[in-house]
Amino acid sequence: MLGVEPYKTAVKWKEKYGGVVGIKFASMNCVVISDYKAIKEVYNNDNCLDRPLWKVFSLRNGGGECTGIAFPRGKIWRDQRAFIFKQFRRQGFGTRTMESHIWQQVAELVEGLKQDAGQPVSTQVRFTTAFWNVVWALIAGDCFKQTDPRAVEMSDFIVNALTEFDVFTMASMFMPWWADNGPEFLTHIKLAGSVFGASVLLFKPFVDEHWRTHVPNDPRDYIDAYIDEIKRTTDPKSSFYGETGRISLYMTILDMFVAGTETTSNTFKWINLVDRKSVV
């Protein structure tokens, strides 16, 4: 029904049925919106921004209620979003401070590519590292050298966390029974659950260091500010409270780390390929 180029199908639907079309996608009722005014209205309405209750999202969060910024619903999502916006603005997001971080990474990326001139090179890790380093400066207050083994490890994590999920894994989002009954080598459901543990192990040394050196109400970066919020929160229902808050910290780091990096990195990798006179 959608064909191999769904976006073209959506254009045809708009021409025939209008800018808002309802469809049945496997077991889910879905709405395809192709009208600019309707899209703007939807994205400005918090009632339209909830995430579905998909098992793969819960497993990614360690099996509990979804936290972080990418996959939670309702009040959890609104609270986490507001906190992130506030702290990133305080850290200089969208200002010359952020611009200086970007130019630093660009200069290091260009120098690295110059050193590799004349020999085969994979830009996957190089581009990914450069982009997440900008985000990491806001999260943890520092940047890695792009050749640092820890930087390479983090870049590999981003790439592997996404490339392991294919169309069969995504099918469980629209057909919940597939997640429970499909073969593991296709659903990768256990792999989805392992992302939580892997991310905790990856970020734990940096989070632990912030807990150890934390000075109340004097945040150096996003992690410090989040620790302040955990310590001051007394409402057990809050996503910042106690152990839930600690898990939320890891999940928001993971979400920003992956979502804030991979899309931009992939765009530049494709631009780099298109700009070549020949591609092997």
3D shape: globular
Radius of gyration: 21 Å
SS-derived structural category: mainly alpha
Average predicted confidence as pLDDT: 81
Helical amount = 55-70%
Helix-strand sequence: HEEHHHHHHHHHHHHH
Distance between the termini: 34 Å
In terms of per-residue confidence, which ranges show pLDDT below 50 for 5 or more consecutive residues? none
How many helices? The count is 14
β-strand percent reads under 5%
Question: What would you say this structure looks like, in words?
Answer:
This protein has helices spanning about 5-15, 35-45, 55-60, 75-90, 95-115, 125-140, 150-165, 165-175, 175-180, 185, 190-215, 220-230, 240-260, 260-275; strands spanning about 20-25, 30-35. By secondary structure, the chain is mainly α. Helix 6 (about 125-140) runs antiparallel to helix 14 (about 260-275), helix 11 packs across helix 13 and helix 12 (about 220-230) packs antiparallel against helix 13 (about 240-260). The two termini are about 35 Å apart.
